[in-house]
Amino acid sequence: MLAYIVRRLALMVPTLFGIMLISFVVIQFAPGGPVEKAIAELRGTDVGSTARISGGTSAGDFAGTGAGAGGGDSGYRGAQGIDPELIAELERQYGFDKGPVERFGIMIGNYLTFDLGESFFRDRRVVELIVEALPVSVSLGLWMTLISYAISIPLGIRKAVKAGSAFDIVTSAVIIVGYAIPGFLFAILLIILFAGGSFWSIFPLGELTSENWDQLSWPAKIADYFWHMTLPLIALSTGAFATTTLLTKNSFLEEIRKQYVMTARMKGLSERSVLYGHVFRNAMLIIIAGFPGAFIGAFFTGSLLIETIFSLEGLGLLGFEAVFDRDYPIVFGTLYVFSLMALLINLVSDLTYTMVDPRIDFESREV
Fold it and tell me: How much is the mean pLDDT over the chain?
């Protein structure tokens, strides 16, 4: 097992390198850039409009290739009339006085020591911004996944046992309706109803805790935390039950029909012993395989949509705003963290297989 873990950890290095390389290359073809944003701010114009206008210009003019540094022929849209020395200073400040290969090499070298650089426009280190935003995204992703599994697995088992009954049909209808409702739309409805939108003001918006959280007792702190998390988790979890529930049901149905289950029943074992002593271990393998995807999906999707709607400063919102601001250190920093967490969670998922079924041996498996 140790050899397998070492191989997987070693494989993460080229995988991360490939992800960052592809993303870096793609960024080179994105219209607009930090220098152009700075120029737009100097002129008092909207950087979003500037990026859209410049869409027909060559990518090298905007994506940090440092295309010249001089007024009208600098290659930056809107740079006409601006001192060439000022543009050259902007390029130097954002690191665009170096070539793309050199900049990528410097970035990767810094990432090896987890030095994610400094934000272009927030005047703070990217690591500090990520550390502040990470608890929000982890809270949403982890709690949503745990709540979803805690409800979906027992419900799926019950549906498998009662397959074809009224309980199975009714719960399937409820699950499908919940899955069909867009999470962001349901989140807006929750805000209108319970967060001071048009009716009641029961739950707060923004932040994970109240301003006086440090002065609260531990039970009060826990209650305050979940008070802030209630609406975002409800919005996230509404459509999350369908896939896991139906997957659990179908997996258990497939195992229940196998010969070893019939043999166990013929030996006089109770239905509970058959389900949880024999079927559960085999049926749960596919459920465990889906855990990393469920967590990462909730981690990223929740970050991007729910954080925005509920004004939660998490990783998704941080990265989303950085893309529009062309704040590349934050863009690559959040991508690096997301990718690293996804790889680590997939490794944890594989190791969890052996806990559920000791017959699985990763030592003889090729990575």
Answer: 79
